[in-house]
Amino acid sequence: SSSASSASADAGRGAHAELSALLGRLKAAQRKSGAPDYDTRIDHLDKLEKALLARKEDFVKAIGMDFGTRSRHETLAAEVMVVVNEIKHARAHLHEWMETESREIGWTFLPARGEVLMQPVGVVGIISPWNYPLQLALAPLVGALAAGNRVMLKPSELASDTAEMTKTLISEIFEPDHVAVVTGGVDVADAFSRLPFDHLVFTGSTRLGKIVMKAAAENLTPVTLELGGKSPAIVGDGYAIAQAAQKVMFGKCLNAGQTCVAPDYVLLPKGRADAFVEECKKAFAEMYPLIGSNPDYTAIINDRHYDRLQSYLEDARDRGAKLIELNHKNETLDPNARKMAPVLVLHAKEDMLLMQEEIFGPILPIKTYETLDEAIAYVNDHPRPLSLYFFEHDQKAIDKVLRETMSGGVGINETMLHVAQSDLPFGGIGPSGMGHYHAREGFETFTKKKPVFYQSRINSTSLLKPPFGSRIDFVLK
Ligand code: NAD
């Protein structure tokens, strides 16, 4: 094993040297060309949109290969459409975002001027995960390109067909020193994260987020970390249980629960659990009449993740939880196809794996609370989540939850859809991440807001130069 690990260290060093050289070429090209103007950036966005739409069926196929089964609709709606909407939004607002801002100057410095110049940071690195392998690679790319940067992208090796298709798409429309796609496994990812980018976006687990941030710190590279966690769904007293169940099951079953913003667990008012379970059964059967042969119901990405989910269920069962499998047609599901029927979990306890770890699959623990304060306290006793969902019509209760909890984003009376909004910033807080992309905030993430002070021809700051006398006493009066 020592020769294997030194071979992998060699491979790591090799990858690092190659990637360093590539980054060097992008940086040199960036210095040479300077910041692209508005028309050039629009042209980049147009090209990306056109190529992506032309290749959308190729991505349906590639992502389908990576998952075994991946709903075509999910790929078109949650990957292609989200990216296209990001492009459209950036295009519509780019002019306003790029505009130099004029700022106020203190009266003692007048008639000088102050401006903030929007400048691309330079070369942005993007490391993306497998669960929405196209969206989570290209949506940050849109922000980085709109802001005028060059980009190196490292897609997940767990979605390797998509990674190759992304490489093909990008190489058809961008020069290799403009946007470069780098493929490979953990060695390459590790070397990639050590490069002195001007900004690094990492989407993935909280555990790896820490490793990436450490590597970036060595270069003082600023990071945007899009991480995970356990996103709660709280059902309020005044909300119809059937509707809440439909919306929670929608969020839990999309991509078979392999979504960073999927509702991880539910908090229900005491006494409503049985009704909620019945409504979840109905909602699932309505959305997915079949499981095994249903092309709309996505498979678990690989055996490791399938086994991980099974181990959560085993652990919960062993510790006395009640598991309710939503397999209404009693289908025999082949573990090799990795289609997993959703499982509702009652009497989940804190020390169970599925209450400790982000679930990232179609398992839904259901807990109950007596007062809204208790539900809020439960959320606040746990790491700050990426999303929080609250089902309630009473605005006072909504305001209370909004003010008293902290999360990356919030959906009121809906799951997931806040992420599909191009004009809402997206990002976690604490262990669910830091920084934002999407919307103007995304443009700003990849932009240096450079303050510029213009002295006037009539130099007024002589006021501040020695000999001082007592002028400052006069100003401070
Ligand atoms: P992951 O953390 O396993 O891997 C993500 C990426 O990290 C991959 O491209 C991989 O090659 C790379 N990587 C692996 N080892 C690395 C290393 N040592 N240094 C640097 N990079 C390395 O994540 P995953 O399993 O692909 O995705 C699941 C997790 O991602 C979940 O926790 C989920 O919540 C989170 N997620 C978050 C968001 C978000 O937007 N906040 C979106 C999707 C997924």
From TrEMBL:
The keyword Oxidoreductase applies. Transmembrane segments: none annotated. SUPFAM superfamilies: ALDH-like. GO terms for cellular component: cytoplasm. Residues 1-11 have a biased composition (Low complexity). InterPro entries: Ald_DH/histidinol_DH, Ald_DH_C, Ald_DH_CS_GLU, Ald_DH_N, Aldehyde_DH_dom, Aldehyde_DH_NAD(P). Pfam families: Aldedh (PF00171). CDD domains: ALDH_CALDH_CalB. One of its GO terms (biological process) is aldehyde metabolic process. GO terms for molecular function: aldehyde dehydrogenase (NAD+) activity. Residues 13-451 form the Aldehyde dehydrogenase domain. Signal peptide: none annotated. The active site is at E226, C260. Keywords: NAD, Oxidoreductase. Belongs to the aldehyde dehydrogenase family. This is Aldehyde dehydrogenase.
